[in-house]
Write a structure and sequence with these properties.
It is a single chain. This protein has 493 residues and is an alpha/beta fold. The protein folds into three domains: 170 residues, Alpha-D-Glucose-1,6-Bisphosphate, Chain A, domain 3 (3-Layer(aba) Sandwich); 208 residues, 3-Layer(aba) Sandwich (Alpha-D-Glucose-1,6-Bisphosphate, Chain A, domain 3), CATH 3.40.120; 99 residues, Alpha-D-phosphohexomutase, C-terminal domain (TATA-Binding Protein), CATH 3.30.310. It is 36% helix and 23% strand. It contains 16 helices and 23 strands. The strands form six sheets. The chain has a six-stranded mixed sheet with strand order 2-3-7-6-4-5, with helices on both faces. A hairpin with a 2-residue loop joins strand 2 and strand 3. Helix 2 crosses helix 3 and helix 15 crosses helix 16.
């Protein structure tokens, strides 16, 4: 049976595109996942990036209940198409991607990142980098041929295959990336708490920090999946950090989301750093000469004056990657990118004392954690003192869950009449009592409203979940949070 990926998207309700595939775990049947994996590999064949003849395809996954099943479907799809699937086991997304990039093979990560565990996803990487927007049409237009005998009426395999042996190489390679670059006493004297919860990188974080000399305490391990979102931190996680910090045992706390590509770093007081603040500090540690960052991120990156070039992009790592590639083409030597969710990407090799930290142009949590702690240590500052060196610009974000994309777009349409004067008036009518007069509008991605008092409201539907997000920026943290809360309350009403 032949089926087009476009038709399968419509039938299954599982989206498939630049960010990979995402949907309800029940909708992500073996048949859907198998077809999407084959569609991705066929696309790479069509552009001449791979050819069958037993070439390897790296596959990893997170700790969601459905991930093992989806990994099996992906591995079988690769094997049946004439490739050789390498089951990398349950390891971080950047570990799978790094293994693929260094071996010039495709890599596929089964993860829903921060979304609830009744959903899942599949993230695809080409041999040398992330899938870009320019790849989306070619991927979604693929037609795959499926053997009907493989699947039952429920869309799942009719016969199970023996479990594939797990290769530890990718996970070990990821840890050694840092242990070979930094000195083994780099973190000596620092006390670090690792909030493990259900992050797939929980063990490798303990290993890396311990081997670099830190005194490490593992905290909060969970055998149940916890949807930690680094961009909208749960109140429970805020409280846990404060409780752990109150013991006085830690110089910092570190953690990550489910697939461990986005970091959480707290100061010694248990205050989680915003992702765009963490990104600025890590970029400073790496002495970046070009930063690509979405329009939603904190303007402290411009106001601090530390960097020769800042490029603003649409929200999403594919846009950041595109911008970084162009920055490298234009001659920048230390090119990085970061997102409001804490995702940090390195597009250049970093050389220090004859040692090289190779480029990793996909979200990576570990470099942010290490960068912040090592920058603080080198400047003989606490993490809270380090963050205080930035201009007083604070961001907050939150979202309305189970908010249909159509509803989100309808709200934004109210402020997109074609008349800027009319749009500003409509915005002031709705949000004027919160932030006052509108100075400027930016529609790079969603609607970013800059008010005369320099406060910012940024509205945008989520790109991978039925959620409506609000980002806010103000002169202090309390005010940024207040703006976010007030705006979402108005929208919900």
């Amino acid at each position: 049976m032949k089926i087009s990926i476009q038709d399968l998207m419509a039938q299954s309700g599982v989206a498939f595109g630049t960010s990979g595939a995402r949907g309800l775990a029940t909708a992500m049947t073996d048949k859907v996942c198998y077809a999407y994996a084959q569609g991705f590999l066929q696309y790479l064949e069509s552009i001449g990036e791979i050819k069958r003849a037993g070439e390897r395809v790296a596959v990893g996954g997170d700790f969601r209940p459905s991930s093992s099943r989806v990994m099996e479907a992906v591995c079988r799809a690769a094997d049946d198409l004439g490739y050789r699937a390498v089951n990398c086991g349950k390891i971080p997304s950047p570990a799978v991607a790094l293994f693929g990039f260094e071996n010039k093979i495709p890599s596929i990560m089964v993860t829903g990142s921060h979304i609830p565990d009744d959903r899942n996803g599949i993230k695809f990487n080409k041999c040398g980098g992330e899938v870009l927007k320019s790849d989306e049409k070619g991927m979604s237009s693929q037609i795959v041929e499926l053997d009907d005998a493989l699947f039952g009426a429920d869309g799942n395999f009719t016969k199970a295959k023996p479990a594939q042996e797990i290769s530890p190489e990718a996970g070990e390679n990821y840890a050694m990336r840092y242990l070979n670059f930094f000195s083994r006493d780099a973190l000596k004297g620092l006390r670090v708490g690792v909030y493990q919860h259900s992050a797939v990188g929980r063990e490798v974080l303990v290993k890396i920090f311990s081997h670099l000399g830190a005194e490490v305490t593992a905290l909060g391990w969970s055998d149940k999946f916890i949807p930690v979102d680094t961009e909208a931190i749960r109140p429970e996680d805020v409280q846990l950090a404060h409780d752990w910090a109150a013991t006085g045992k830690f110089d910092a706390l570190v953690s990550a989301d489910g697939d461990s590509d986005r970091p959480l770093v707290s100061d010694e007081n248990g205050n989680w750093l915003r992702g765009d603040v963490a990104g600025v500090l890590c970029a400073k540690f790496l002495a970046a000469d070009s930063i690509s960052t979405p329009v939603s991120c904190n303007t402290a990156v411009e106001k601090c004056g530390w960097f020769p070039e800042i490029r603003r992009t649409r929200i999403g790592s594919p846009f950041v990657v595109d911008s970084m590639i162009q920055a490298s083409i234009d001659g920048a030597k230390r090119v990085v990118g970061y997102e409001a969710n804490g995702g940090f990407l390195l597009n250049s090799d970093i050389e220090t004392g004859g040692k090289f930290l190779r480029a990793l142009p996909t979200r990576d949590a570990v470099i942010v954690m290490l960068g912040i702690l090592l920058l603080a240590k080198s400047q003989k500052q606490k993490v809270s003192e380090l963050t205080a060196t930035l201009p007083a610009r604070f961001t907050a974000s939150d979202r309305l869950k189970n908010f249909a994309t159509e509803k989100s777009l309808a709200i934004l349409a109210k402020f997109n009449s074609g008349s800027e004067v009319g749009d500003k008036a409509a915005i002031e009518k709705m949000f004027g009592e919160i932030c006052g007069a509108v100075a400027k509008l930016n529609r790079t991605d969603g609607l970013r409203i800059i008010f005369a008092n320099e406060e910012i409201i940024h509205l945008r539907p989520s790109g991978n979940a039925p959620e409506f997000r609000c980002y806010a920026e103000a002169a202090n943290d309390e005010r940024a949070r207040e703006i976010t809360s007030l705006v979402l309350a108005k929208i919900a009403g």
